[in-house]
Design a protein that fits this description.
By secondary structure, the protein is an alpha+beta fold. It contains eleven helices and 15 strands. It has helices at about 5-15, 40-45, 75-85, 170-180, 190-200, 205-215, 225-240, 255-265, 265-280, 290-295, 300-310, and strands at about 20, 55, 65-70, 90, 100-105, 120-125, 130, 135, 140, 145, 185, 220, 285, 315-320, 330. The longest helix is centred in the C-terminal third of the chain and has 16 residues, at about 225-240. The N and C termini lie far apart (about 70 Å).
Length: about 350
Amino acid sequence: MIGIYPTWQPIYASQGIATFPLRENKVPAIRNFLRVGMKGSGQLAAKFLECDTLGFATGPRSKITVLDIDTADENILADAIDRHGKTPVVVRTASGKWHVWYRHNGERRRIRPWRASSLPIDLLGVGGMVVAPPSKTQAGCYKIVQGSLDDVASLPIIRGIDPTLLGSALKVGQKLNQSFHEIQEGNRNSLLWQHCMREAHRCHTLEEMVDVARTFNERCNPPLPSEEIIKTAKSAWTKTTEGNNRFGRHGVFFDTDETNRMISVDQDAFVLLAFLRANNGPDRTFMIANPLSKKLNWTVKRLANARRTLTQTHLQQVRRPSRHLGPALYRWKNNGSRI
């Protein structure tokens, strides 16, 4: 009996999308799957005749970026579409969650990029992959619930994406192709543990924690056993619920000289610096927009003065404010170290 993959491979190919076979656990059935082109895809369809699961690389190769909404909550789906723009193609995953398709515009692959809002959404761009409908997996079937493959040519570009999530498709793609799904034996367990501990802060249930671990396991070659995945997820969840998870948490450090100097010269700059250090890691690009004044219980002028002081000592402006792009963006000088 001919499977779903060889049946749908030519249909996707007619839309310019090169697909590849997946196992039922959503792990690619081949190596170097992100490099599969149209010719190779056709050859694979002839080889994997009974395969019922297919996927494709997001990014410049398929010209598709996907919002991977890791919850079945339709309100979060609606909010995401309202924030990032309407699109003709929405897919319901085998577990009842959502994939929202957009035209690729240089977006990178980022897991939980909207950290400040704890949104359970991944951005699948350069270096990512997605399970394609109507794939059949261990959990069920993927289905296009809005639109069809004929709408791929009219996909809109996603709106409301931070510029730091964009990049050169070629350079970023080359880098991610080397690392994505290339976690080999020897460090799989430790990297899974670290990933679970960082992501646990954004999970609301143990089930979500296990799902995060299973998603990470898709990058392992070969994959870890299911019982190891569940064990690690439970351990990370226990640490987090007991308040013992310090992964991914920023701290604030001032040595004595810096503290004494700033308090004596500009106490507002000291307070603003403490707030920014507590909420932004050394490699982060961030805003210091005027609405922050309300959070600090300051006037806008007071915030502007403190911000101006820090741009002379600790901060570097990387984007000027613009009516079209939004508030200015900043990053740390010398990775946030003391100046």
